[in-house]
Specification:
By secondary structure, the chain is mostly helical. About 65% of the residues lie in helices and about 0% in strands. It has 2 domains: about 60 residues, lambda repressor-like DNA-binding domains (434 Repressor (Amino-terminal Domain)), CATH 1.10.260; about 40 residues. The longest helix has 26 residues.
Length: about 120
C-alpha cells in the first residue's frame, strides 16, 4: 500500500462533481485549506484522520477514501461503487431500502430480458 498518486486526481474529480473548491472541502471536513492544497498538489499524502474527515465531508464510506488513498486494501470482489451503495443504503429507512431493492430487481429483470433477446438474434 502507501500513497496512491491517483488520490489527488480522484479527490479533484469528487470536488468537481459537487461543484466544490478546496475551501469548500476544507470547511466541510474541518481540515486546513493548506492540507487540502498539499494533498491535491501531491506534496503530502493524506493520513487516516484526514481521510476520515474527507469521507464525512463528501458523505462517502470511509473505506472508499482509505482505499483510494492507498491506506487500505480493496475488498476482494467489492469495488468502490458497491462500497458506496452499501454505505448509503445503511443511511436509509427499511422502507426506502426495500424501494431500492425493488428498483434493483426491476433493473436485473430488464437486463435478463435484453440478454435473452440478444441471444435469440432479436434487434
Amino acid at each position: 500500500m502507501g500513497y496512491n498518486a491517483n488520490f489527488a486526481t480522484w479527490l479533484q474529480q469528487e470536488l468537481d462533481l459537487r461543484g466544490w473548491n478546496q475551501s469548500d472541502l476544507s470547511k466541510a471536513a474541518g481540515v486546513a485549506r493548506s492540507t487540502i492544497s498539499n494533498i491535491l498538489n501531491m506534496q503530502r499524502s493524506p493520513g487516516p484522520a484526514v481521510c476520515l474527515a474527507v469521507a464525512n465531508a463528501l458523505k462517502l464510506p470511509p473505506a472508499v477514501v482509505f482505499i483510494r488513498a492507498g491506506l487500505m486494501p480493496e475488498v476482494q470482489g467489492m469495488g468502490h461503487i458497491q462500497e458506496e451503495v452499501i454505505y448509503k443504503l445503511t443511511k436509509l429507512s427499511t422502507e426506502k431500502q426495500q424501494t431500492v431493492l425493488d428498483l434493483v430487481d426491476s433493473l436485473l429483470a430488464r437486463s435478463e430480458k435484453e440478454s435473452r433477446k440478444a441471444g435469440k438474434g432479436a434487434p
